[in-house]
Design a protein that fits this description.
The structure holds two protein chains of two kinds. By secondary structure, chain A is mostly helical. Chain A is built from eleven helices and no strands. Chain A folds into two domains: 32-61; 72-277, MetI-like fold, CATH 1.10.3720.10. Chain A has helices spanning 29-48, 53-61, 65-71, 81-111, 120-135, 138-149, 153-177, 181-189, 194-227, 236-245, 249-277. The radius of gyration of chain A is 27 Å and the shape is globular. Chain B is mainly α. Mean pLDDT of chain B is 82; it is low at 1-9, 283-289 and 299-304. Classes of the chains: A mainly alpha, B mainly alpha.
Chain lengths: 278, 304
């Protein structure tokens, strides 16, 4: 910026007001430390993953059959017997996984908060359990169950059950932390037992958010159920993996595009429903 | 007065008796509730009947899981801890670089998706792009990048990068749309250009929240990058999958423990930094609020 004559309104010219303006505070130690940390982290991780701009540009500009397949996807696969069955199986897995997970998530969320579980020791056990379940991603659950229970839809269902459990419990217990204590006090004052108190004073407060979390979870499960098939846990992922392993990219992208179109349509419904709930 | 009027009125077909209803407000949305419940029940029933799962195996599942757990956690070897932690670090690296790439693209995109900064048509188009990216899981994107980059961590980095643009962009423009109008008007009043307006009117307001959402996404992406390893792009997921495939249960168990502990550890550190960023110094270490905010965003999340 130019240091122009006095009175010109450049953001940098503070000749007149300077006396009255407070001094601009410098960066806090926290800002300095986190910025440095982020820079160091970036340099170190870039080296760990072998990041280079040349490699990036070279690889991305090279023509390749996968992208060609994406540009002309083959949608006919969706009408074949096996792909359609896998498609439906995916939807069913998502529905059942959500329902099973959500019905266990509500009590678990209640038990993980002070209002629903006065016992500190038991509460921390439930919390540790929730944290462990939450740390394992959907595909790892699928891997675990495929090796324990075997290949097939049942493993997928169990995987989605635990995944839903993690998501819905976490979101619900966060809402539980912020409920209005009034109704709880009222219920306690009128001599309600723990279950009665939860039923009449806590659950009605969180029910709208809980229902919308369940729907949100269903949307997540729809996507997950396409993915868990990659390790043999049923659903459309098995067909995607089949075409991928054979390098039939047109067919693979056809299935993927169709599936996510359907997911986006279902999601639009679910979002409308959620908006009405809250 | 109201009571008298209501008694005189013709009886209406509600499930409440005429005597009750002057005191009680009419329960809202009954029809919607029943229709929704019926439809959902029907869908669940259809899924339950239709799903070709071997239900009989469900009874054996706990025993199977116990056997697997015993195999996994009884044969662990301490010598494997170090290399596996190295692999976990690789997963974390993939997540960090991916998140960074996503943020670099998501921040400018979100400016063009915020209706208080650009016109509606532009915002709408950018939002559709973000929605499309959000709809596809990272692992599917990775399927596209693996043939390009081979089975290298870079395939994972780009998959996570592209996959996170949608979600980050959406969270960002929601934050931007919630900012104070005042500073923008102030920059306009002193004749700021478009980029100056962004720099002085918008950025200072959104930077803390943007940063904390990027960190949050980093936590989410650690799980995603552990998953991507299943495809063989590197990181702990690759070792875990290999171990399970070759029935090296001890290694698999150890890898699983390292995934869980590593994820929780990074979550904790990143969570502390996030809370400090959003709340400023001296805030209580009690969690909740940030996640509650995110939960709120999810609950209200609108898809347009």
């Amino acid at each position: 910026m130019t240091s122009g004559p006095v009175g010109v309104a450049s953001p940098e010219s503070r000749v007149d007001g300077a006396a009255r303006l407070p001094k601009k505070p410098g960066p806090t130690p926290f800002t300095i430390v986190t910025t440095l940390g982020a820079v160091v982290m970036t340099v170190v991780t870039a080296r760990a993953v072998g990041f280079s701009f040349e490699g990036l540009i070279e690889n991305l500009t090279r023509p390749n059959s996968v992208v060609e397949g994406l540009l002309n996807p083959d949608f006919s696969q969706i009408w074949s017997e096996r792909s359609r069955a896998a498609f439906i199986e995916t939807l069913q897995l998502a529905v059942l996984g959500t329902v099973a997970g959500a019905s266990v998530a509500l009590p678990l969320a209640l038990w993980s908060t002070r209002v629903g579980n006065p016992n500190t020791f038991l509460r921390s056990i439930v919390r540790i359990f929730n944290n462990i379940v939450r740390a394992i991603p959907d595909l790892l659950w699928a891997l675990i169950f495929v090796s324990a229970v075997g290949i097939g839809a049942l493993s997928g269902l169990l995987a989605l059950f635990f995944f839903s459990l993690a998501v819905t419990t976490k979101l619900t217990s966060d809402v539980l932390d912020g409920i209005d204590p009034g109704p709880v006090e009222a219920a306690n004052a009128s001599g309600a037992g723990l279950t009665q108190m939860l039923r009449t004073a806590v659950v009605p407060q969180i029910l709208p958010s809980y229902s919308s979390f369940v729907l949100y979870n269903f949307e997540l499960n729809l996507r997950s159920s396409a993915v868990i098939g990659l390790v043999g846990a049923g659903g459309i992922g098995e067909r995607i993996e089949f075409f991928r392993s054979r390098g039939e990219w047109e067919e693979m992208w056809g299935l993927v595009v169709m599936f996510f179109l359907v997911v986006m349509i279902i999601e639009a419904f679910s979002v409308t429903l959620r908006r009405r709930l809250v | 007065m109201r009571t008298d009027l209501s008694r005189g009125a013709p009886v209406r077909a509600t499930d409440l008796s005429a005597k009750d209803w002057p005191q009680l407000p009419k329960p809202p949305r009954q029809v919607f509730k029943w229709v929704a419940t019926t439809i959902i029940a029907a869908i669940v029933l259809w899924s339950f009947i239709g799903l070709d799962a071997k239900w009989s195996r469900l009874l054996d599942a706990p025993a199977d899981l116990y056997t697997l757990g015993r195999l996994m956690f009884s044969q662990m070897e301490a010598s494997e801890i170090r290399p596996l932690i190295g692999k976990m670090w690789e997963s974390i690296s993939i997540a960090w670089m991916g998140t960074l790439i996503a943020a670099i693209f998501a921040v400018p995109l979100s400016f063009f998706a915020a209706e208080n900064l650009v016109g509606r048509p532009v915002a709408w188009i950018i939002r559709q792009v973000l929605n499309l990216l959000r709809a596809i899981p990272e692992i599917i994107i990775a399927l596209a990048f693996i043939p390009v980059f081979g089975l290298t961590p870079m395939a994972g980095v780009l998959a996570i990068g592209v996959g996170s643009i949608g979600t980050l962009g959406k969270l960002f423009y929601e934050i931007i749309e919630g900012i104070e109008r005042g500073p923008i008007e102030a920059t306009d009043a002193v004749g700021a250009s478009r980029s100056q307006r962004l720099r002085w009117g918008v950025l200072p307001q959104v930077t803390p929240e943007l940063t904390s959402f990027i960190l949050y996404r980093f936590e989410v992406n650690i799980r995603a990058s552990a998953i991507l390893g299943v495809l063989g792009v590197g990181g702990i997921g690759t070792d875990l999958t290999q171990a399970i495939r070759f029935k090296e249960w001890g290694t698999a168990g150890l890898a699983l423990i390292i995934v869980v502990v590593g994820t929780i550890a990074v979550d904790t550190v990143s969570g502390l930094v996030r809370r400090r960023i959003v709340r400023g110094p001296g805030a209580s270490s009690d969690g909740g609020s940030f996640e509650a905010h995110e939960a709120e965003l999810i609950a209200e999340s609108v898809n347009d």
